[in-house]
Amino acid sequence: MSHSVAGNLSRQAVGNAPKQLLGRSFGKDRAWPPQSTPKHLERDAIVVSSVCAQARSRTSCFGTPLSSTGASRAALRLPSAATPLGLSQWQRQRQQQRLRLVPTEALQAVAAPTAGSHAPGQGQAGGSGAGASPSRAGSKRTSPVVLFETRFEDVGLAARAERQGGSFKVVLQLDSPRAMTLHWALDDWLPAPEASWPAGVSTVRVDDKACQSPFPPDGRLEIGFTQDACPHRVVFVLKQTEGGAEVWFNNAGGNYAVQLLAPPIESFVDKVLTAEGSCSHWSLPQRLMLATEVLDAADAAGPEGMSFLFTWLRLSSTRVLDWYRKSNFQPKDIAAIQKHAGERIAEKARSSPHPLSRLLARGALAGLPRGGGNGDDIRMGILHIMRGHGIREGHRPGHDEPFLEQWHQKLHTNTSPDDVTICEAYLAFLHSGNHDDYWRVLWDNGRLTRDKMESWSKPISAWPQHLPHLIPAFQGYLWTLKTTHAGADLDTAMEMAKGFMDDDLRWVIYDILAHRNDWWVPGKIVEARQRLAAYWKAPGSSRDLLLLDIALEGWFRTCLERTDLGQLGRDDLLELIGLCLRGAAITHEEEDLLQCGALWERLRSGGGSGHPPLPGERWGREWALAALAAAERLQLSVAAHMDRLYGLVQPHAESFGSSCRLDPAHVTNFGEEVVRGQPLFVASLLLQRLEPVLRAAAGGAPWQIVSQAGSSAGAVGQVVAVAALSEVQGTSYDRPTVLLAGALSGVEDIPSGVVAVLTRSSTDVLSHLAIRARSQRTLLATCFDDGAWRAWQELAAAGAVAAAVVDPAVGAVMPAEPPPADAATATAAASAGGGAAPQVALQAPERTSAWALPESSFRSGLVGAKALNLATLRQRLAAATAAEAGGGGGGGEVIGVPTSVALPYGTFERVLAEERRNAAAAEAVGRLAAAAGEEAAAGRFPREELEQLRRVVAEELVAPRELVRQLAAVAAEQGLIPSADHWLASYDDAEARAAAAATGDDGASSSYDNDDAPAAAAASATSWPAVWSAVCRVWASKWTDRAWLSRRALRIGEGELFMSVLLQQVVPFRYSFVLHTSNPVTHTPGELLGEVVVGMGETLVGNYPGRAMGFTAPPTSAPLGAGGQSQPQLISLPSKRLSLHAPSGPDGALSPTLIARSDANAEDLEQYAAAGLYDSVTLQPLVARSPDYATDPLLGDPAWRGALLGRLAALGRTVAAAFGGRDQDVEGGLTEEGRLVVVQARPQVEIHSPHP
After folding, report:
1. CA 810 to CA 702: how far, in whole Å?
2. Alpha-glucan water dikinase phosphohistidine-like domain spans which residues (predicted)?
3. N or C: which end of the chain has fewer CB within 10 A?
4. Which of these ranges, 213-217, 508-512, 587-591, 903-907, has the smallest mean pLDDT?
């Protein structure tokens, strides 16, 4: 046999004529040329499973129900027509594909096996045992991890894929043992190695692709693989022998498959793009069949894969991709194919493991025809009408009506959703007798034109004749067409789904349809959808239920979009946003949006709907601050969700554009059209109306931040004012520019060279402009304060260069002097009066032989200002607390300071010079640093040299053993690690592994080579390799672009900068804060300005969207409870959509970890803060979460919040007093136990306005 049966069937299903399946030819395809047919297929008829058969996931024969969030079903691929790969070629291809696997939640359990784990030995015909690998002495047996599990109902087969240690296994179990043979291969029909063949049965290789393995009497087959030989999936068809006749099953032409590893996305993307761009014979049925082939692979690849499928089908449903290309099909065939595709995609919308994948599958289904019904009724229905009314058909005599004859020919060979539009247009003409109505409905309902219809392979060029007696017949025929093609049409969807719900819900939805234009319908739709969700989300439920939910959601949006928002009161806006969020919770299932909905319910409920209300009088200042924070949080969440959706679909649209030569007009704005078509878009419109009202009630928040700048230092450029952004469309600025636009509409583009757009116009967060701004990391903000806007206009009039800095506490965009690094890149800085930056003199380091220092040895010349300030702070806070206790005051609050040790100045240079294994790295650092200087002297920016410097320092340095010994001893003494052996042992392990790798010995053991994976993971989190990597990355940050430019601007030589590294305990904070003991915004001496966020402080000091909780405390704050204006005053409540938290261990408990912090001699100086120029690196990455403000006391408990603010105000003044009254920037946090901890204090650097 020249090739596999399944390969032939799959090619027939998508390339040529699936005659056994559809009954007529689809035409020939150059992309998949037909191959010779096996003789037994020429002799015997092939019986394939019905297209309508759906392999639904149900309770498997293994005894466990399949989770709706489990791994997706198999990825079905078309076999390539390329030269068949031999076994060695397949192994090489597998090694290449392994390097580019797409990680997904569905298959994330497929990780590197623990050492020594193995599968049971298996023997087989011609094989050596699947997964047979020697186990190490003392290794434990790990439990198998189920990767994939499903049932193929049409053949009564349960399938499961599992991993146990380093072995993978596919288990196939027939419901009832019978004479069945598995015809199988790997991936895209590549030959399976004999080592993987099932044990106990006689497996034979039937051709250069496939093997055949008969099922044993118990109906169970197992196929095993080792880690290195594991494919992405096993593909197969089944052959049943009955009385000498062979019956073949191939999953409706798509093959069966069991997924083992997440597939590389290229495996199906390239296949689809080739088919769409190159096949000479192509049609809508073939597209849908190919879509079902790749559906499981797309789902297994996660949102990136499913977004490709969504983009593809959306381009199809909007007719950007053609539906007919030299190919014909019968109505019954397209009806069956549409039904099968709809059922498969509906199942993904219910059960895909990732919420965004489910949303994308739902979007793909929304644009598909419904399918099903009796497809023959389409073909026979038009014949019955023509014959019953004496209209000529073919050679049959009768009244000559060319339009109906041409349409009849199309219906017989190319029926599609276009026919619904044609029928609606024809009925409109029959009612009026006016051809204008015919052409109008064609365009309005389906965007069909005369030229388009005449270009079809079965063209319709004739104009219809007025035969009004045909109206009743075609009204009935329209319903026939809609049952197959209508998709999410509201009335059709309800008729199809009405039998799958209870009587009460059915009555509610019919009541909605009967009164669909009444004012109360939106609320009823949300209530009905909440009840309907229980039906359509049930495993195996009808796709018609999901189509009905989609149709109801679409009508909800229609109702809201036709509402005059300008006539709505502020309470009406609150209620409508609540309705939007309740509806979104059904569709999106994202934790972030669910939290926004819960917070909004507290905002709008007033305590009347089971949700406790937010504190404060409704529309009073306290309530309005909380409402404004809720609105900003929702705005950020909607924007982030839509930005992610845009980022997923737009690249795929561009791929289709280039592969299929599409009109750029359909591609350029594809992602934006998808975003604006989402139901949440209505919520953004309502928020745009509500936010100004909330700001007025809150008495503050003069700015709306739509898009953050790409740097925490702000956007730096020359300030230029224009009346409207539309005036400068097409303009290119040759220098960084902060643009003041008096007005904008949201559809403009951002001109080249613009780093910030500040405007007076309220900006929709999902507008074209907003999406582009966030994509380009351009600051976009709206100013609502006349005084603040006037200050920016004066800067523009003076031609000043300024930094637009976002202050998260007051929600303001402040003009500030540009940092020297950024001023150096702004070509107008000198002409604007900035002049040359003053040279900063750096302290020369003190030479020392010590590799590591405890806190008691910190002193100037050995460590930087961070370490010195922390040591001083610990001593003075302890002294101040003792003094208060001795003075009879009972003692002040005990403030914690985390333990730390340091690598002193010069350590980096010694590592390069004294460790012989670093000779090559030392040479590279010297050479690249010199090359960077030469490039700069020639007027060029040394981007490539700086990148190489960072890579060499971060990845190629080796730690001297004496450094490790000393640092481990000091760290153990200070309590940072359990013992010095903790680092020394892992250092020796790493050295042994490196030596073994250099000699090619793969058998080197490790102290972490055991099956106690959680314990090993916990130990490795603070192991020496993790510490050394963090330290080297801190050193590498000397050569970031901004740091290098900053030193050049301040004329700091490369040899003058020395980097100490502070190793500090990471304290897991419930809340983090930054305190400025003198207000840098209002320049009020002694007035404390504080900012608080949930979680760790990186979201506060970094460039994370949203506002912190901001407050001020007057210079003479009264004790807590004294009342009056002496108490801390609330400025804003938190709205950041992300919080960062310390990582948890395997048991869920917080895992102790460390942070390596930069402490250079060019940081935290009085004349030069250099904040953010050099990196701090945690040994383990912090975990991002969505803060649940609905349950957080920062918003919901004013008494608790007030007590916290009082403690923070007192803390700020205590720290300032500890440094002799010098104003400080204080960073710290509040632990879960309620203890205040300070992690850093440094002299406060004033933010000066550049206003001349």
Report:
1. 8
2. 703-793
3. C
4. 587-591
Mean pLDDT estimate for the chain: 78
* pLDDT at residue 954, as a whole number: 94
CB neighbours of 275 closer than 8 A, spacing ≥ 6?
14, 31, 78, 282, 286, 287, 290
Instruction: Please determine, for residue 853, whether its predicted confidence score (pLDDT) is greater than 90.
Output: yes
Q: Mean pLDDT, to the nearest integer, of 676-690?
A: 88
Helix (H, G, I), strand (E, B) or coil at 385: helix
Give the Å distances, CA to CA, from 650 to 366, 668, 671, 1225: 19, 8, 5, 43
Question: Which residues, in sequence order, are bridge partners of residue 65?
Answer: none
Quick one: pLDDT at residue 1143? 84
What topology is assigned to 1066-1142+1182-1243 in CATH?
Answer: D-amino Acid Aminotransferase; Chain A, domain 1 (3.30.470)
Q: Are 765 and 676 in contact (CB under 8 A)?
A: no
Given a contact cutoff of 8 angstroms between Cβ atoms, the answer to whether 551 and 512 are in contact is no
pLDDT digits (tens, 9 = 90+) for 259-285: 888 888 888 899 999 999 888 888 888
Query: What pLDDT band is residue 1126 in, cutting at 50, 70 and 90?
Result: low
User: CA-CA distance, 1235 to 1089, in Å (whole number)?
Assistant: 21
Amino acid code (one letter) for 1056:
E
Spatial CA neighbour of 316 closest among 296, 288, 342 = 288
Least confident range of 217-231, 316-330, 347-361, 546-560 = 316-330
Q: Is residue 1221 within 8 Å of residue 1243, measured between CB atoms?
A: no
Query: Could you tell me the two tokens for 1072?
Result: 């983090």
The residue to which tokens 């009587």 are assigned: 503
Phi, psi dihedral angles at 1111 (to 5 degrees)? -155, 160
Q: Are 261 and 225 in contact (CB under 8 A)?
A: no
3-state helix, strand, coil split of the chain in percent (to 5) is 45, 15, 40
Strand partners, 782: 704, 759
pLDDT of 919 > 70? The answer is: yes
- Residue 212 CA: distances (Å) to CA of 5, 85, 133, 184, 221: 11, 18, 25, 6, 12
What does the block give as tokens for 794? 């004066």
Quote the tokens at residue 1000: 């090619």
How far is residue 1105 from each of residues 558, 695, 708, measured CA to CA in Å? 31, 18, 6
Of 971, 987, 1047, 1050, nearest to 1020 by C-alpha is 987
95: Cβ–Cβ under 8 A, 6 or more apart, which residues?
none
How would you write 552-616 as a 3-class SS string?
HHHHHHHHHHCCCHHHCCHHHHHHHHHHHHHHHHHHCCCHHHHHHHHHHHHHHHCCCCCCCCCCC
Q: What secondary structure does DSSP assign to 160-206, as a single string? A: EEEEETTEEEEEEEESS--SEEEEEEETTTBPPPGGGSPTTS--EE-
Whether 1201 contacts 1062, CB under 8 Å: no
d(CA 965, CA 954): 21
Other C-beta atoms lying within 10 Å of the C-beta of residue 41: 16
Burial class for 1063, CB neighbours closer than 10 Å (0-12, 13-18, 19+): buried
The rounded distance, in Å, linking the Cα atoms of 131 and 230 is 10
Predicted local distance difference test score (pLDDT) of residue 1089? 87
Tokens representing residue 950 in the block = 């960072």
**Dist CA 37 CA 248 (whole Å):** 14
